[in-house]
Amino acid sequence: MLRKIWIICSLVCCMSQWSSGQELLTVKTAVEVALENNYDIRLTKTVQKIARENNTYGAAGMLPTVTGDLSNNNSVQNSNQLQNNGVERSLDNAKNNNLTYGVSLGWTIFDGLGMFARLEKLQELEKQGDLQMKRTVLTTVGDVITLYYTIVEQQNMLSALDSSIHISNERLRTAQNRFSIGKAAKLEVLNVQVNLNEDVSLRLRQAERVKNLKTSLNSLLARELDIDFMVDTVVNIDDALVYSDLLDRANQFNPDLQLIVLNKRLAELDLKTVKAGRYPIVRVNTGYNFSRSESSLGFVASANSRGLNYGLTASVNIFDGFNQRRNERVAKIQVDNAALQIEQQRLMVHTNLKTAYETYLTNLELVKLEEKNEDIARQNLNITLAKYTIGSISSVEFRDAQENFVNALSRFNTAQLQAKLSEVQLKELIGQIDF
């Protein structure tokens, strides 16, 4: 009979996992779908593209500007003219036309090296877009893995409840048989029925929890919310992480720390741009223009001209109310603040890494402990079930063993989940999540 019950429990677990023709969604596939569909990643990609598009010589002000100009002015006037020789001339509805068109070129050839600072800033902003993309990907992948293994934990718990229900069904059948032959009271049958109803109620709540978690994962993957799927219930935990190695990698690859370091570089480039205001701005200008004018009244009835014009302009800031000096001081303060933020962020990363690693070690020990407890509770349930079958223990004692087994299995699943989440948190801190 004992063998029969565990065969039934195994079949229930398998059926709960492979029913309804559901797809098997592995954690790797879930991450790949998220990288393709997740809205945060897609939005960050557009920001990254904008930064890449802005990284040009033209945006830095290093290239000339060429414009085409056209001006056509017309007038109709009643004119009276008194010339120096005493002759008076007048004309009603006198027409005057003036047409000018051409091409002009302007090029700033020196601005205190500010254009080079702006170009380098645009390059750094493109790097910033790449780092922000990396951080978004890490955060999204971490969220997907966390939610996936939360579903694994709850799915395993659901399978345990299925097993518990079948054990309760077998208990009820045994109690009814014992009652029918006069070896048990009606009260025992009723107690077992209450226990079975309690298990069914817990199972309904657990099924709802699993379904809602799957909906949340579908939302994170940006796909249809009603897609049902199975999860791989095996939790593989990397138990070989070393703190010193994690610390070195966090100093190199933590995206938040990299962004803060990049912000300091941007502040230094802003200071260079401000200092460029102390130097003159030199600009060359040239163009080729055509001009034609007509006048109904005047010494010249019509005129045409065309030709090349060119020149050089230079300007320098002599005095601007000490704003140049003030702007430089502010820019230097921002550089100093950025340096402080680097140290602050590095300390924060080290603190989070240290606490996360201690939690990781504790969770690994808890996994080992709860695995042993689960095995002990399973053996205890086997022995109790055998004794209950031959009537040497009461239904209440068997129920205690059954609940102890379910609770031990729940704690083991929770310990596995927490250990996996600690691993994911550590790898997110060092900027390198694998799956």
TrEMBL record:
Alphabetized UniProt keyword annotations: Cell outer membrane, Membrane, Signal, Transmembrane, Transmembrane beta strand, Transport
Stated family: Belongs to the outer membrane factor (OMF) (TC 1.B.17) family.
Subcellular location: Cell outer membrane
Main location: membrane
A Pfam family per the record: OEP
Organism (species): Sphingobacterium oryzagri
SUPFAM superfamilies, sorted: Outer membrane efflux proteins (OEP)
Cleaved signal peptide residues: 1-21
Name of the protein: TolC family protein
